[in-house]
């Protein structure tokens, strides 16, 4: 890979700074949330970059179009596609999930494709059906073959999503060192650690066994899987959460883990993970907010794509609530971090 210098991303970052100005701010969100109707919310978006099709009602098309344009530009102008792949590969592995389901169900699910990564659907489909595709990254091809082999051996089709989520984490873990950027390495490390914790918190109330967790916890986090498994085997929630609290992410996160632990000890049943998901997103955004102080390097474009994706998710949440006449009082609790905070 070409060596990364201080000004490698200087030109792209000038463009990113201009594009950031079009991201919605707190006042924009407040107006959307307070809008009395779905139509009123759409009217407020007319002066924004979102081309939402009010006639056909296909709002989702407008939201995805905004993301597609952003990813196309990012891949076109980024000095290293691997930087954009940190987020873009999620869509590659999403599309693989859809293609595997198409293959096993023998149904057309093309409406579920998300065309935001650089891999062509035709190449991914070829890999799923034949196990070969010369144009694909060998890491992706290996993941496809592993999933096919697992399904052939076990018949557990429902595990496809879980296996490909794991493959995505493995892929970005292998990619991060080559990007030669401490902030991006920290981002990937934190992302994998938090995904492992999320998996544990969802598995415990569901009664998932240690075998399941040993097979699905990602080995590329900064907290080693044997440490996590040892705490789980000993049913030591204090020890388990202490491993994450030692990361010193934030006081709020440590307090949150204490609350989750106490809720589980008291109720021994599924607990609301909304607060955890919110804190997880805040901890990822914490790394990316460093980009506002950086004129050089790859972090600004990665941060821009992250906050743009959050914006699309937030708009989808608000518009769905308005269209369904749902109570909007708790929208803010479910919103992802925004750029202007």
TrEMBL record:
Keyword Transport appears in the UniProt entry: yes
Keyword Transport: yes
Keywords: Ion transport, Transport
A GO term for molecular function: proton-transporting ATPase activity, rotational mechanism
UniProt cross-references to InterPro entries, sorted A to Z: ATPase_csu/dsu_sf, ATPase_V0-cplx_csu/dsu, V-ATPase_V0D/AC39_subunit, V-type_ATPase_csu/dsu, V-type_ATPase_csu/dsu_dom_3
Top-level taxon in the UniProt lineage: Bacteria
UniProt feature coiled coil, ranges: none
PANTHER family assigned to the protein according to its UniProt record, in alphabetical order: V-TYPE ATP SYNTHASE SUBUNIT C
Record family assignment: Belongs to the V-ATPase V0D/AC39 subunit family.
Name of the featured protein: V-type ATP synthase subunit C
Protein's organism: Aerococcus christensenii
Taxonomic placement: Bacteria, Bacillati, Bacillota, Bacilli, Lactobacillales
